[in-house]
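Render this sequence as a predicted structure.
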Amino acid sequence: MTNLDNSIAIITGASSGMGKAIAKELAKQHVTVVLTARRRERLEALVQEISENGGKAMAIPADLTSKDEAEKVVKTTIEKYEHLDILVNKEIDRHSGINNLNKLEKVIHAAKE
């Protein structure tokens, strides 16, 4: 299995269901998880749960149907951690902000500038 120590992951739809489960599992693998979804309270509860179990997490509430908010999530992550290794885009659909960015690499590059 690949060593994920010190990796940074953005997880969309992290406030419940599969996104939440993925976030918890990645945190157990020593990945710093950046949690995003619309429900701030649930994200904050998950950050606390992950932290209490020895993991590292940050919440960025956002509505990813907005391209600007999707870009904010990526930019905030890179500003804080200086890199991004993993994107778990559980919320991808034809209306999703991250999906509408065409190429995530463009956003990551722009955030580094």
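Summary. Residues 8-112 form a domain with the Rossmann fold fold (CATH 3.40.50.720). The mean pLDDT is 84.
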